[in-house]
């Protein structure tokens, strides 16, 4: 379900809201101001729309031109916040975690803020419930004076093997590293200047040379590319003497695998977690999810079955981490399923591939009210558009044509064309492409409302 073009953070895995939306609402619940989001340039419109759906105030969205891990992203966020308040307190949250019990979360954040105001860099330690080998650990040290329930960090521990994880659980005083931090921006930047000066240098330069694009802030690519590709743990948390840990009482998971998602989901009397159009018979302890067709499972125990429009996964829960190996194989074989779904989102709406052969392809295109595709042309294909819902305003060379349901238009190879939705309901049309080459890169954008030229 999680693909490069539509990653886990944007999926509604638990409930009706995506992981990102739950994270945004979580910050508001504990009294934070408008969120500052650092994200991949490719996902900017999806993220902006998801945030708009759940937040009345505007979020500040900073776009990374390339991925450089968490340390440069956090440094950029700190510099951005410092422009308004050099002593602002930031709460850093990955947008792909599940947290239950908002009251307990609020109490932990309050302790972390107190520690941050004392000049400390606070992190949250999640009490382990089993010997997990997929998380890093934090070893608790002495109590922090002045903040009840906060402790100095004795050591950060790498992801352990099973035997070491069992020892951590038996001894106590070890916590899962949640990847969440609370700090004053001036403290963080001073410590990063000491331990990771190149991160600070290039993060600051990338923000100073930023460009504003619609509602987004674009970091300077040349500067940000020079930033080290390093996590905040390696760059700072494991080196600074200012780290403290807040042992947390709320339930937390990074939802890193299907078996973890099964644990968090509501279950029937046979411990099956069922999502979508699903039937089970004589099954126990299974996670079965369908994003479309009826999916039936019989006579299986502890299985994971996930069905999407273009792929099916069947595995034992104990092998859920092996999905990563399958994805690696798909990438090596150049399979599109490793990076994209059949449904591809765009700032104006989305398109979905229905069928594809050597010289033709059929798509369903949905354009949001007021949405407008780029003015474009194709060198290798022609297109037929048939409106099946809503109203379309089509530009074809020098003509403008208004199309309603059951009306169509032909766009010859090389013609300059554009599609708009002037109505108040979504526009749905069927597109039939034909030609020698049907790739998405056969688009010459002449004008674009979303600055994608």
What does this structure look like?
With 453 residues, the chain is an alpha+beta fold. It has 3 domains: 8-253, Alpha-Beta Complex (Spore Coat Polysaccharide Biosynthesis Protein SpsA, Chain A); 258-326, no CATH class; 343-447, Jelly Rolls (Sandwich). The chain is 25% helix and 33% strand. The protein contains 11 helices and 29 strands. The relative contact order is 0.10. One of its GO terms (biological process) is polysaccharide biosynthetic process.
What are the SSEs and their pairings?
Elements: H1 19-29, E1 36-40, H2 44-54, E2 60-64, H3 70-82, E3 89-92, E4 98-100, H4 102-117, E5 121-126, E6 137-143, E7 151-157, H5 162-171, E8 174-184, H6 185-195, H7 197-208, E9 211-213, E10 216-218, H8 221-225, H9 232-237, E11 243-248, E12 251-253, H10 258-264, E13 273-275, E14 278-281, E15 287-290, E16 295-298, E17 303-307, E18 312-316, H11 323-332, E19 343-346, E20 349-356, E21 360-367, E22 375-377, E23 381-389, E24 392-396, E25 399-403, E26 408-411, E27 417-420, E28 427-435, E29 444-447
Parallel strand pairs: 1-2, 2-10, 5-11, 13-15, 14-16, 15-17
Antiparallel strand pairs: 3-8, 4-12, 5-8, 6-7, 6-8, 7-11, 9-10, 17-18, 19-20, 20-21, 21-28, 22-29, 23-26, 23-28, 24-25, 24-27
Helix pairs in contact: 1-2, 3-6, 3-7, 6-7
